[in-house]
Structures are given as structure tokens and as C-alpha cells.
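During the reporting period the student researcher (J.K.) took over the structure-prediction task from the postdoctoral fellow and processed the backlog of single-chain submissions. One of the processed entries is reproduced below for the supervisory committee.
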Amino acid sequence: MAEKQKRVAFGALGIFIFLCIWYAATTLTSLGKVMPDPITVLAGFFTAFVEPIGTHSMIMHILVSLRRMLIPYFFGGVLGVLVGILMGWYKLADAILMPYIQMIRPIPPIAWIPLSIVWFGFDEGSKYFLIFLACFFTIALTTYNGVHSVDETLVRAARMLGAKDNQLFTSIVLPTTVPYIFSGLQVALGSAWATIVAAEMIRSSEGVGWLIISGQEVGNMTQIMVGIMAIALTGLLITSIMRGVESKLCAWTVRGK
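J.K. obtained the following C-alpha cells:
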């Protein structure tokens, strides 16, 4: 508990120092001509929960973006885990699928925007596609690495004792792979949330990414910074929740502690 309190205290101190530097830079230098000070941004952020920006208040913009992110994140996570286990456990699947994953994985989601519009139009499908890409490959590869980290000696010993494939999977492979899966889920969660801005560039009228895009169109720097703050704080919240879930489900590992 004392260690957690220290982490929270040092984290709060770091944020306070950053805000002080930001305030000094915008009030004492010419930076204030192009960027609002943190007090103005914080006031605009909290005001947005009461007064709508566009058609929605801040809470609705955040919820819309979370919905857009969580739906493809769920399917990307499920499919990524299945593909990762398949490639890690079966050499034939590894030989067939890995070249495609290694070729497509380096392509950033934003590069797929033109094709996503052609394939799915301007509706939610194009946004889901971009966020799915941001999740799937990370989760598939970390799961694959988790399966490959299984101690072969344990597998051979279990087979000698008559263990079947389903018993090997539930008693050896899965416990070893679960921490890797959660690691991939956590990294993919951050990537998916970061991709929301690119996804909401595709003809949106709501969402935290739209706050930034619409602020840019009208030259409203305060709104842009409010959108960035909403993305940062929401991202911090959801990743903290994921780490909490990981620490409970993977209590036998050092991750999440």
C-alpha cells in the first residue's frame, strides 16, 4: 500500500510540474499566442460536460468513441488470440499465416483510410476496420510468442504421462500464455484508442477525435486541446482498468503489480 501511495504521489507531482511548465511557457513566452494555458484548457474541458460541443456534451463524445473502439477491439482480441494460438501450436498454420501477418502488420492503420472508405463507405464499418487492424496483429503476435514460450520439457513429460491435447492446452499452454495475452491486450488497447482520432477523420459528427478535427477546421485551439485532454484521460482510465483486471487474473506473475 505504501508503494502504491508513493507511485500516486510522484505521478501527481510529475503532472503538477508539467502543468506549471506549460503555464509558464504560455504566459511568459510567445507560445501563448498559439496555445492556450492549462487553466483555460481545464476550464473548457470541465465546461464541456455541461455545455455541448456540437450536438453532444463531453461525456457523450467519450462514450461514442469508446463504443467505436471497444466493438472492433473485442473482435480483434478474440480473433487475435485464436490465430496466435493456432500459429503457435500448429507449424502448418504458422507457415501459412505468419508471412501475411508480417507483411501487413507494419502498415499503419491511417494508411488504410482510402481503402476502408472504398470497402465500407463513410459509416461505422470503416472506423471499425481501422481499429480492428490496430488491435489484431499485436494480440496475435503476443499470443503466438506466449505459446512458443511454453517449456517443451513439460509438454513432453505430460505426453509421456498420457495427457491429451486438450489437457495439455488447459494445464500447460493456457496458464503460460495468459500473461502474454494480457500484455498484448493492454498494448492493443492503447493502440486502438490512439487510432480513434484517425478513425473519426472519416466523416464524423461526434466523438473525441471529432473534437480535434472540428477544432482544427475552425482554428479553435482550445477545443483541440480539450479533445487531446479527453483522449489522454480516458486512455489513462481504460489502461488502468485493464492493468487492474490483469493483476487479478494473473496474480501468479509479476506483471500488473
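The committee noted the following: The chain has one domain: 42-249.
J.K. will present the remaining backlog at the next meeting.
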